[in-house]
Protein: PepSY domain-containing protein
Amino acid sequence: MKRIISLAFLGILTTVFTLNFQFVNAAQNQEYWSKYPDNSAASFKEPDSFYKSLDKKQYAEFENAKLNIREKTFFKDINSVLSRADQYGKSRVGGVGVHPKRQVYVFVTVSPEGKLWTAVFDAETGRKTNEGRQL
Structure:
């Protein structure tokens, strides 16, 4: 009798944990992109216009820079833009919860001495999401 009760209890417990896990997974998948969803259909400023509107404390190109990159791209393509400056130092960006087709601005500048400064801004919010300096 004890075995039957124990097996029944174990079966119920297993079912409850399985259902709970499935509900948690479903909720996470629905909210995964909620903070930074796909905005690929939206229209935003051109990179030059956005750069000119920036506070120069957030990002400014070096005077007489060896390289300047201003580009609007998808989040999934940030590292391919950054790789164009690899000869001056590697810089890469990653993130969780950002839709791959989220539009961002990527800026790269290299000083005459070879110092690298990168910045990534969300195109929709205008907030800086990543910065890298190798000074």
Observations:
- The chain has two domains: 1-31, 47-134.
